[in-house]
Amino acid sequence: MYNLNLYNNYNFLEEYMDKAMNAAFFYGPNNIKIKNINIENKSNDNLILKVLSCSICSYDVRTFRNGSFKIKPPIILGHEICAETIDHIEGKNFRIKPNSRVSVYPVIPCFNCWYCNHSKYNLCSNLKEIGSTVNGGFAGYISIPKKVLEIGGIIPVLDNVTNEEASLIEPLACCINGINHIKSLDFESIFIIGDGPIGLMQLMLLKKYFTGIHITVVGKIDHRLDEAKKLGADSVYKIDTKHDLHTLSKIIDELNNREKSPNLIFVSNNNAYSLKVAFGLANKNGKVIIFSGLKDVSSVTENNYFNTIADANFVHYNQISVIGSFSSNPENLREAMGLVNSEEIRIKNLITNTFELQNLENALKTSESFEGFKSVINKFDN
Length: 382
Hints:
alpha/beta, Quinone Oxidoreductase, Chain A, domain 1, Rossmann fold, 2 domains, 14 helices
């Protein structure tokens, strides 16, 4: 049995001292081991929560396969977390009772940089993240740094939200953050390149906030494109591989047959080739939102795709805006929670696979294979 130092910010209940839990440690590419470890209370710097569910992000899948520059193994992955409080939590502007369900904001601010001083915690110059820099939610219990509490990063789960839905509040908040960047911009049509959970969450939000604007979803998985239609996409296009230039040309031709006007394109998947698609679709005065971290960028560069993707003259003469969007802030999580609780945004159907922690590797592979939509760990056998 291994020891893991987990800390509590308040009076940790004695019954949890030295209690065993299961935790999934990432040791390197394709190497995850489930270990039974002790919970130990040794400091007042952190708060311990009992994990109820933790959903799998594409970042977790990429890290499982290839590692990440953010991570020094061994580490517990998982940052899309619903948990339960053990002790009473009280701060300057909040109070949470024991045994309350909460969603967790995964960014740990430094409080020293310009961005933290202006409440832009996702852009912290000394960024640390739960599930990357410190241990995450693929474990029975999780240690939350006090700084997360101080910025309001522990969000009470509302009554109409399930544990599994609550673990999707974090990615929904990221989508809200991205859409907030473009609410005041000038555009008359929208493309979402990506038919996964993120693309579909963006679709639901965009349908809510922008009535009457034509929204197209571009993807490669039939059942996901079918779901996009059900959620209100005005049109969908399937691109099978990065070499499917015929379909791309067809999309551009059909776009050219409509009135040329400023458009908005979300790159909502991690395939670097999607940038080529995005710039091919952009009209004059169009906006390209890069929402996802990209994989295989080196192979794209080696094939000189970026010479055409980000041609400076094309961006200049057509007045194209390129905008990045990363993570979220606590207020985005609160907004996301309210939207799910009120059923203005329905994410229940995106939760298609649930697993025990012991089967985390299978859950990662299921996500990687595009089977269903979201995979969630919701049993930990502590």
